[in-house]
Amino acid sequence: MDTYLKQCRWGNFLLIRGDLISEYVNLYGEWCEGEVELFARLLPEDGVAIEVGSNIGMHATPLSHFCRKGKLFCYEPQRVVFQILCANLALNNRLNVIARPCAVGAENAVIEIESGACDAPWNYGAFSLARGYSAEGLYRGAVAKEPVQLVRLDDDMAAHAIGRLDLLKIDSEGCETEALRGASALIARFKPYIFVENNAPERFDSVLDDIRGRGYRCYWYCSSRSRPNNFNKAFWIMHGQDINMLCVAEEKPQPADLVPVESLRDLDLGKVPLY
């Protein structure tokens, strides 16, 4: 692994040379900042948030700023990436964050996942518990296997004593329904905003149906990975977008400025703006 420091919109960050997210951050000084602006609207300063799939902490750091008098619980199963996450939390003095080197799912267990040195150019943010590094193509770097704890959020002692939950953010590359099932009690008790990536045709309906079945309405929130008004004032455009849903409990005020989710075809029909 080859790492380097970069001054960015939300502080100093340790980045991984050749990693897709790190390369975006190196060029623009931020990552999917449209999502960050949404989180600022959703999280009160004494709020509590859970982030499933924190990666290197590009969103964990601003999230922890927004709930600076509350807590943020971060879960990242890749050991090497988790170490970079912790470095970035420490570099930016994010003392209200509890970071967990765990996978999140529907049961408590110990599973084996792929592990490596993150020394080959790749999108390490697309890591999948089931397919490892090869979720988006054939990974050609060196790979080993190592155990990691799989936890149900409802049972995890790190978050057991929380008295509120304002935001549940899930980016788990294919394990969204499992993470939701493992958090059923937390969701039923606190009715948090749920922000979840939902971009795979084979999983789209199951994720949408699961969340709707919990008494939620779902809205599109798709973000561009680069924006003209970026922190570094870079004018080169690296195209890319993330497909997410913001899900709001039916008893809460609904966002009038977002497009309701009907089907994945909404994207092809041009109904959905990019933030």
Task: Please state the CA-atom Rg, rounded to the nearest Å.
Answer: 18 Å
Unreliable stretches (pLDDT < 50, length at least 5) are none
Number of helices: 8
What class, by secondary structure content? alpha/beta
How does this model look, in words?
The protein contains eight helices and twelve strands. The chain has 275 residues and is α/β, with parallel strands linked by helices. A seven-stranded mixed β-sheet has the order 5-4-3-9-10-12-11, with helices on both faces. Strand 4 (71-75), helix 4 and strand 5 (97-100) form a beta-alpha-beta unit. The protein starts with a strand and ends in a 7-residue tail after the last helix. The mean pLDDT is 96.
Summarize the structure in short.
The chain has eight helices and twelve strands. It has helices at 20-28, 33-42, 60-66, 79-91, 176-182, 184-190, 201-212, 265-268, and strands spanning 3-8, 11-16, 48-52, 71-75, 97-100, 102-104, 109-115, 144-151, 167-170, 193-197, 216-224, 241-249.
Q: What descriptors fit this protein?
A:
alpha/beta, 12 strands, three-stranded mixed beta sheet, 275 residues, 8 helices, seven-stranded mixed beta sheet
